[in-house]
Amino acid sequence: MSVKIRKTAVWVEETLVEMGKTITPPTRKAVAVAVIENPLAGKYVEDLTPLMDIGAILGGLLGSKCVAALGIKPSEAESYGKAAMVGENGELEHAAAILHPKLGGPLRKAVEKGAALVPSSKKMGGPGQVLDVPLGHKDAAYVRSHFDGIEVRLNDSPRANEIMVAVAVTDSGRPLPRVGGLKAEDAIGKDGLK
User: Rounded to whole angstroms, how far apart are CA atoms 75 and 146?
Assistant: First the structure.
């Protein structure tokens, strides 16, 4: 099944100063959003394969847009996350179908590797509502400095028969991390945990 995209949006958040301290280099998060038609809106459908296939398309597309927006090589991506908001004529399981079975593989390819699970959130909502995209280190879940998130909001999305899908990628962790744990430079990235 092909995906019908109404709009996309991409932006980068860059933190230069935190608590009066200069962040060098700045911490940067990119988020890419696609607003798509929900082909299963308004009806119960047992087989969610069409949405799973759409997830595979969007994982690569949105992940690549984030890497390009940051101006980095895929190997320089440090953390990632995904989220989806379903309009009122859909169901929460539609968001799960897009995010879980097939989106992760193409996203991992876009950021090179990605041994850790991709943090995710899903919700139902309407135009202008905020969608939180959780973030975690792409190769080692125990890297606490990369537990983070970013908000996305589009004033006209998602409409009743749409799904708003977001992927976020960073080239760093939080500014001024100091809660301990495994350091990014010490992560092995073999098991997705350490």
Answer: 16
